[in-house]
């Protein structure tokens, strides 16, 4: 088996990238885990776990990059990831629709 070549600059780049993107990655991973456990606890099927949990993770990852647009610090991304995983895709969509409808009406 080939060993990975020793390249300190590559590792330094990866660690820097991970440090800058950790809140978003953590939010996506947390949403995926919380959604999986929520579905298992609720007696959901394997198909639902395979479809909904990654959707929650991707949704949390996308939402974490949009927090700054709403004036929310990026360090709160894991909290929102946990909430998205707990609410699920349908609950998150309903909450987002309600929030943005209210914001549009204020304009």
Structure overview:
With 107 residues, the chain is mainly alpha-helical. The chain has one domain. 79% of the residues lie in helices and 0% in strands. Helix 1 (8-41) packs across helix 2 (46-66), helix 1 (8-41) packs across helix 3 and helix 2 (46-66) crosses helix 3.
Proportion in helices? over 70%
Approximate shape: flat
Q: Main beta sheet, described?
A: none
Helix-strand sequence:
HHH
* Structural class designation: mainly alpha
Number of domains: 1
Number of helices: 3
Round the mean pLDDT to the nearest integer and report it. 92
Report the radius of gyration as a whole number of Å: 17 Å
Question: How many β-strand runs?
Answer: 0
Tell me the span between the first and last alpha carbons: 61 Å
Strand content: under 5%
Low-confidence stretches: none
Oligomer: single chain
Please outline the helices and strands.
Elements: H1 8-41, H2 46-66, H3 77-106
Helix pairs in contact: 1-2, 1-3, 2-3
Outline:
This protein has 107 residues and is mostly helical. It is built from 3 helices and no strands. It has one domain.
Core attributes:
single chain, mainly alpha, 79% helix, flat
């Amino acid at each position: 088996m080939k060993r990975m070549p020793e390249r300190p600059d590559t590792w330094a780049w990866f660690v820097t990238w991970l440090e800058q993107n950790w809140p978003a990655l953590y939010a996506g991973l947390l949403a995926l885990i919380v959604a999986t456990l929520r579905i298992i606890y609720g007696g959901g099927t394997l198909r639902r776990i395979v479809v909904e949990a990654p959707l929650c993770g991707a949704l949390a990852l996308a939402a974490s990059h949009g927090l700054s647009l709403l004036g929310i610090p990026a360090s709160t991304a894991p909290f929102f990831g946990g909430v998205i995983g707990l609410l699920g895709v349908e609950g998150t969509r309903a909450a987002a629709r309600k929030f943005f409808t209210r914001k549009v009406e204020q304009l």
